[in-house]
Every structure is written in C-alpha cells, then in structure tokens.
Specification:
Number of strands: 6
CATH superfamily: HAD superfamily/HAD-like
Mean pLDDT: 93
Number of helices: 7
Distance between the termini: 13 Å
Strand order of the largest sheet: 3-2-1-4-5-6
Structural class: alpha/beta
CATH class: Alpha Beta
Largest sheet: 6 strands, parallel
Radius of gyration: 15 Å
Low-confidence stretches: none
C-alpha cells in the first residue's frame, strides 16, 4: 500500500473550520460514512491537523488525544476508522516543520507507512495551509467547500495564489467519490 488520503479535521470532517476544544468537536453527519467508503476501497486514511491551540494554552495535548479517542469511538460505531493521526500542537510561527503548510506531518507518514506521496491525496478546507502543504508534498489536492472552503476560494484565494486544487468538492462525501473514481482510473 503506497497510497493514502490525508484528511484535515476542522472544517473538513467536522467543526466550523476554526480550532475548537476537542471535547466540543463533532463530525459532520456524513463524515463517518465517507471515511468508511475509503476504508472499504483499501486506501489508508490519516487525520492530519494543525492544533495550535495546544501550544497557545487553550487546552492540553492530553485533552486533544482524548478528543481524538472520542472521535475514533464515534467512527467505530459506523464501522469506520483512521489508520493513523498526525497533528501539530505548536504555536503559530513556532518554526516547526510539522505545522501546515509545512510538510513534516506528511513526510512522517510517508516514512512510517512507506507511501508514495504523489499517489496520495490531501483533503482540506483551507487553501493557505491544506492545499499549500499538498502542493509542496506533491499529493493530489482536494478542497472541500465546508468549513473555510468557500472563503478559501474567494476572500482568501490570494493566500494560495498559483496553486490549483485538483478537485473542488462540496463536502467530504463528494471528495471521497472523486478520489474513488480517480483511483479506479489509475489502476
């Protein structure tokens, strides 16, 4: 397995786009089914998220990890799962390599799971972090219109100037359908 789908959390699988306390995070109703669809076609699914509120003291890393467990339990109820979770807990402008749009999280997953990033997909709602990271790493780029997606296409389009999404999806279900079809074309 050399392919994977990296999913942003806030604004892509749930929430509003902005970081919220892990205990208050809830997935969109359609997110578990969309993730299960990826599981069923045999592609690895990774959560990949900036969680700068840990570094800024809004909540602890332990609370974040408990929130991830709660999300995984909710997915399990729907027979869906994440293969791994990658997150950056640092403050903005910390200078780390893991905070999107840097690609440290993608490189770490590549090494651990023996991935070919050019055969992977990044799905996110922000052009200025998700799409830029995907572009730097050479993955396919899928922007969802949920969360901050609409404003990434308009008000904040200049934050990712020169980068084009491979697909602009209404939501995660639409993104997963496009990815499934794209994978079939490349088999």
């Amino acid at each position: 397995m050399r392919r994977a789908v990296f999913l942003d959390r806030d604004g892509t699988i749930g929430g509003t786009g902005g970081g919220i306390h892990p205990y208050d995070f809830s997935m969109y109703d359609f997110a578990p089914k969309a993730i299960k669809s990826l599981n069923e076609i045999g592609v690895k699914v990774f959560l990949f998220t900036n969680q700068t509120r840990v570094g800024r003291g809004y909540f602890t890393e332990d609370e974040l990890l408990k929130g991830f467990k709660m999300m995984e339990q909710e997915l399990a109820i729907h027979s869906a799962f994440l293969d791994d979770i990658y997150y950056c807990p640092h403050k903005p402008n910390h200078g780390c390599e893991c905070q999107k749009p840097n690609i440290g999280l993608l490189l770490k997953a590549k090494e651990i799971h023996n991935l070919k990033l050019e055969e992977c997909y990044v799905v996110g709602d922000t052009g200025g972090s998700d799409m830029l990271a995907a572009n730097k790493a050479g993955t396919k780029k899928v922007l969802v219109k949920t969360g901050w997606g609409e404003s990434s296409l308009s008000k904040y389009r200049d934050h990712w100037q020169g980068v084009e999404a491979d697909y602009i999806a209404d939501d995660l279900v639409d993104a997963v359908n496009w990815i499934s079809n794209d994978l079939k074309k490349n088999e």
